[in-house]
# Entry
Amino acid sequence: MSEPAQGLGTLPRDIHAALKTDPTRVPQLLTGVDLGGAPDLWRTALAAVNLRLGEIIRDVPERGLDRVVREVRDLLMAVWVLESAGALRFSEEGLPVVNRFANAIQSAMRKIAPPLPKKVKLNAPTRKVLPLSPTAVAVAFDDLMLLRGLIEIGDYTRQPDKERDRHVGFLDDWRRQTWEGARVASWERCRELVLSAPIDWSVPGRRFSREAAMELLEAIHRRRQDHITRIPNVSMLACQRCGRFEGRERVRCSVCSRMFCGRCRARTSDLCLADYVRPRYGNIPPETRLSLGSEARNLCARYRLDEHTRDEAFVKALAEMDIKVTFMDAHPAEGAEEQDAKGIWHLRLKHREYASTKRQCFAAMARATLRRLALPADADLEAYFVDTCLGIPIEDALTWNDER
# Structure
């Protein structure tokens, strides 16, 4: 166990003891506590989680599957309470520490629900199906939902495809064990048991969806059978702005520390839209924003431009704005715009069909619009025009601070 964090007294020791013996005590210990200033507390918590997992997976048949799935759920809830209090908002060796908790819990759960053997040997011991009561089916699926949520807020961009497939296989193995133990034969019966069960737990500031979990797990089950079923792009965790469960990834804003989906976060930084647009565009006069935004939307509608439009459409639109576009490998990657002796503007780009190329074309249109409206050349006005062309709801985000 690591040294107690300064300024927290005996709280790290109490959290360690609670996680190791009774995780249901963790919410009481952390009521009204902010652990964002304790960067090493996660080490104490992770050590206790590993000890608790060792106790949970020890002699599962004798202890009963009902008790095991409830203990796993209680431990996952305690980890989520720690995350909500700010204890897991740190990184170690370039990766969020929440990855370590998710990997540790998933490894233990994989021992509870191992995959079926690829070959059946005559001398192998008979596989036993552990009984599970119908009331514990919802708890077992809550385990998968909470674990999947931890994975969604972590960083698994460097995870190889083999490990991703292994994770998906584990989700279905846990579902199979639950069905066999509770004698569930169809998804209709499974939905009835899971969705009708009361939710006797909660995490401060977090909202989960059993419906999204059922949709994901059913698609994984059917895909392992027919190999063509599409895996839905849903998340177990609601966006803390729009409340949707769309998009499997959740990104934490580095300013307000809340979780946002892809629609409600900035594209080029780890910020929510409100914390991105207010410092940058809040000082622009409203009438200027209204005029420039209207120009951007009208140009995109007139030439049918968006971030997915091919380069030929941008070249045609810029030509009508008296800007000649040329592509050459010798041009700088960030692009260059110059005016020749005849007064013709030339936009020199290097790459074709890149996302950065679309932004450079929108930026050239922004500069041309500023010249036509006799507005001064300004980087913030240019960025406002580009973000409006990309469909970012800037005006809505400027009012978020009053609503959240």
Q: What stands out?
A: The beta strands are 91-92, 95-96, 251-252, 259-260, 323-327, 336-339, 345-349. The longest strand covers residues 323-327.
